[in-house]
Amino acid sequence: MQDPSRPMTGYPVHNGYPPPQQGAAYPYAVPAQPPQQPYPYPYRQSSSSPFARRFLSAMIVSFVVIGVVVLVLWLVLRPRLPDFSVESVSLSKFSVASNSSSITGTWNVRFAVYNPNKKMSISYDVVDSGLLYKSETISLTRLPPFKQGKRNQTVVDAAFSAADTYVGTRVVSDIVGERTRGSVSFNVEVQARVQFRTGGWRVRSRWLRVWCQGLAVGLSSNSSGSGNLVGGARDCRVGL
Questions:
Q1: How far is the C-alpha of 57 from the C-alpha of 95, rounded, in Å?
Q2: Which of 190, 184, 158 is nearest to 171 (CA)?
Q3: Distance separating alpha carbons of residues 176 and 113, to the nearest angstrom
Q4: Are 64 and 72 in contact (CB under 8 A)?
Q5: Please, are residues 190 and 127 in contact by the beta-carbon 8 Å criterion?
Q6: How many CB atoms lie within 10 A of CB 40?
Q7: For the segment 7-59, what is each residue's pLDDT rounded down to a tens digit?
């Protein structure tokens, strides 16, 4: 007789669920999955819209046209730099002090400025000038602005002064050495802001640089400290 305490075999235990179907791997219903959305790839818009490209093309064409017009005007007008020369130099009350390495004197320099342009006038807005011995600056001055018409020559005077201005022992020694030979040479520089004009058209302002070198002033060692330019007028180098 079978032991009632042992479970029965060969029959499934009834647990309230239907028995699994033959060949089924999972007896319960699979929960519904939410529909998968496609991966959102980023969309990069073009950095240049048609309007921007047209605007850029128009700007390039405008710059090219303006450049061609300026070049044609430049070739037609052919602006030339003015000519500078030193007509005269006078020196008075000149002296050097070896004990203090200083220099004293008054210089008056006359420039002849010529505008060689046939179709353009020149305007000098700011004109600064300096007197030097070799590379040592002795005195600085500012000249009044002026204008030049076509093929016009203008006389410009500049006055420089030094009163016990320190220049150093080397400069004093060199000046004394030159003076014993009968003359002392000075240099003058000019820096001017200029503008070329013709009718209603004008070139943007440029800085003009003038260098006048080797202005020998007759000044012997036993003179009273006065002298003048020797050897005639001197041409100056001019550049931008």
A1: 68
A2: 184
A3: 33
A4: no
A5: yes
A6: 6
A7: 555 555 555 555 555 555 555 555 566 566 555 555 455 555 777 777 777 77
Query: What are 202's two structure tokens?
Result: 């004008």
Comparing CA positions, the residue from 236, 192, 199, 69 lying closest to residue 121 is 199
Q: Helix, strand, coil proportions of the chain in percent (round to 5)?
A: 15, 45, 40
pTM: 0.69
Cα separation, 159 vs 91, in Å, equals 10
Please choose, from the candidates 200, 202, 208, the residue with its C-alpha nearest in 3D space to the C-alpha of residue 82. Answer: 208
141: buried, middle or exposed (CB in 10 Å: 19+, 13-18, 0-12)?
A: middle
Residues 6+ apart with CB under 8 A from 232: none
Task: Report the alpha-carbon angle 111-117-118, nearest 5.
Answer: 135
DSSP class of residue 229 equals B
